[in-house]
Amino acid sequence: MKKGQWLMLMFIFLLAAGCSSGEASNQAIKTVGDVQSSSLLNDSGTYVGNNSDVLALLSHLPGGETVGTLNLSDEKIAVTYEAKGNISEEAFQNYWFSGNQNREETLFYNAIYLNLLVPHARGYEFHVQEETMSMTRDEIRMVLSDEFTDLPSEDELMNEEIVREFITTHEEKIEKMANHYEDYLNEK
Question: Are 32 and 106 in contact, with CB atoms under 8 Å apart?
Answer without folding.
Answer: yes
